Amino acid sequence: MKRRTFLASLIGLGTIAATTSAQATIKGHHLKHVVYEIDEKDLDREKAVLRNVRNNLNASGPKNMHLEVVIHGGGIHLLERARTDQDLQATIDTLKLDGVLFRVCHNTLVSNKLDYKKDLYDVHAKDIVPSGVAYLVDRQLQGWAYMHP
């Protein structure tokens, strides 16, 4: 509950910051920065987040977006399920081809006794962040728009 309240207050700050700094000018055009969170074990919700990411890319164009999906807590289910679900694999692969980065919480791996190499779909050492929540906070403080659909 405290985490949600803290994150909710950061959303307000992030919204203000997003209007000014979530867009960085790169070679004459704006690059939008958005971080999505998946933290609940609910396949329908997990798929909905991936659809939102796709819709975001489609609306703005992959070359105008810098999107990351941060997976922690129960959301790790998505990458566990994707190991055997070819539709999820295709969705994740397509998003990655369009430049979406998937970040995985190290704390979640440890608490669930998961080996990213054998238990999760297409996760590499460079994808792992020490703490998913801390990573989300850092991105928001850097001016990234935060989405928790």
Any chance you could write out the topology, listing elements then pairs?
Elements (H helix, E strand, L loop, with lengths): L1 H20 L1 E4 L2 E10 L4 H18 L4 E7 L5 H6 L3 H12 L3 E5 H6 L4 H4 L8 E2 L2 H10 L3 E3 L2
Parallel strand pairs: 2-3, 2-6, 3-4, 4-5
Antiparallel strand pairs: 1-2
Q: Could you list some keywords that capture this structure?
A:
149 residues, alpha/beta, Hypothetical Protein Ychn, Chain: A, six-stranded mixed beta sheet, 7 helices, 6 strands, 51% helix, DsrEFH-like
Describe this structure in words.
- Keywords: Signal.
- Residues 1-24 form the signal peptide.
- It holds the Pfam family DsrE.
- InterPro entries: DsrEFH-like, Sulphur_relay_DsrE/F-like.
- Strands 1, 2, 3, 4, 5 and 6 form a six-stranded mixed β-sheet that branches.
- This protein has seven helices and six strands.
- The two termini are 17 Å apart.
- It is of the alpha/beta class.
- It is globular, with a radius of gyration of 15 Å.
- The chain has helices spanning 2-21, 43-60, 77-82, 86-97, 106-111, 116-119, 132-141, and strands at 23-26, 29-38, 65-71, 101-105, 128-129, 145-147.
- Helix 2 runs parallel beside helix 4 (86-97).
- Helix 2 (43-60) links the parallel strand 2 (29-38) and strand 3.
- Mean pLDDT is 86; it is low at 10-29.
- The chain has a single domain, classed as Hypothetical Protein Ychn, Chain: A.
